[in-house]
Amino acid sequence: MIPFGTLILAATLLQTPSLDSPSPKERLDAVDAMALPGRAENVSPLAEALKKEPRSDVRAAIVAGLGRIGGADVIPVLTQSLQSDLDKDVRLQVVDSFQRLYIPVNSQGPIKTVFNKVKSVFAEADRPVVSNPSIVDPKVTSALADSMQKDFAEDVRAAAARALGSLKARDRVAVLIATLESPQNRDHRPVRQEIVESLGLIRDDAAGPALQRALQDNDRDIAQAAILSIGLVGYKSARPALEDIFKNDRSEISRKKALEAIALLGDPGSQPLLESLLGNTNDSYRELAAEGLARIGPDANLVKTRFEMEKKANVRNALAFALVSAGQDNYVNDLASALDTRQAYQVQVYLYELGKYKGKLPELHRYLKSSNSRVRAKMAHIVGDIGDPSSRTLIEELTKDRDSEVASEAIIALRKLTPA
Fold first, then answer.
1. Which helix (H) or strand (E) covers residue 106, if one does?
2. Per-residue confidence (pLDDT) for residue 298, from 0 to 100
3. Inter-residue contact 20 to 58 (CB < 8 Å)
4. 40: Cβ–Cβ under 8 A, 6 or more apart, which residues?
5. Other CB atoms closer than 10 Å to residue 1's CB: what's the count?
6. Alpha helices, DSSP H only, in 219-343?
7. Per-residue model confidence (pLDDT) at position 7
């Protein structure tokens, strides 16, 4: 007689989903079971299954699973799929997976793909971006650049252009500019707009002249995207053109974007304009003027006077940012407290800049021990994005925080920090 335990084991083995199963659902279940972070031994069998898989939804799940596993071994497999898969949704899923190799995002639970009607997190307006571009394999940016230029589906080309921005692919700035300005792409508006936005995210001032030329684009969305990207790359030579747009353009959207770009430039030549706007009746203008002065080095007394008079929370936050930039570190408390308000996203940007570029990281560290759990969680996110190894011990402590949101943010932040 066969022992009962052996029968149970045999039955369990028979129920294990297989990549070779005739059932698509079982093949999907097998991908889910194998696609675990770091399980490099599963790359080869998944790659073999990908070659012979007839269904697009299962192929998409496989490339999504490879993105979840991660590591250099998956890059050739994903590249081949991006170049040769006939289904554009599978190729879009490859673009998503390439970004997941380097940008920590929540990937728990069953694998979801575009076939599940799930929008990629990288397609959202507030998309995550890589915190340390140096870790991105040039083979990945090369594959994406090729797809941006050659894929026969416009939305895949646009997604690849967007991914180059999310990965801050400075090594592909020249090809991005060439693709933007190629006459062959004149009618491919989505691709060109993603390129303009990506050049802003990459922040290489070599893109400045091309972006200034894009200000004259016949497509208003592209021209407006170019306005902001000029500010992001810090192309100060374009300041007169931006000031002209702010003063004379008929579009309020263009005028506001121009002022936002001027605020980003940090050009001392814009100080008279920015100071003149601190008392403007337009709340957004006052906010952006204060931001711009923060990046130049403002007159602390002037800004303090305006701070004491100001009633609007968003403008007060910008003025506090300017005061901290001017050496008034006590105003960090105003910014940290605002992390638990509707202005949280605004002050996250300010605190990141202060910690990353203004030497205020030790001030931010103090708020990792705030009694307010939302402040702790948001500050952990900011500190992770800054990526300084001096933060590592403090972030490690927060991975054990009693608040689950704080602990989760700390775990993600820890993955972003350069090892000490």
1. none
2. 83
3. no
4. 69, 71, 73
5. 4
6. 220-233, 239-248, 252-265, 271-276, 283-296, 300-309, 313-325, 332-337
7. 42
Q: State the average pLDDT for the chain.
A: 92
pLDDT higher than 90, residue 123: no
Mean per-residue pLDDT, 37-59? 95
- In this structure, are residues 162 and 200 in contact, taking their beta carbons and an 8 Å threshold? no
Q: What is the pLDDT of residue 62?
A: 96
Integer angstrom CA distances of residue 387 from 58, 324, 381: 36, 21, 10
> At 187, phi and psi to the nearest 5?
-90, 0
Closest CA to 271 of 306, 298, 300, 301: 298
- The Cα angle at residue 256 between residues 254 and 260, in degrees rounded to 5: 115
pLDDT in tens, 286-300: 999 999 999 998 889
**Where would I find the beta strands (DSSP E) of 294-416?**
none
Give Cβ neighbours of residue 354 (< 8 Å, ≥ 6 apart).
321, 324, 325, 332, 335, 360, 363, 364
Please report the pLDDT score of residue 393 as a whole number: 95
Amino acid at 3: P
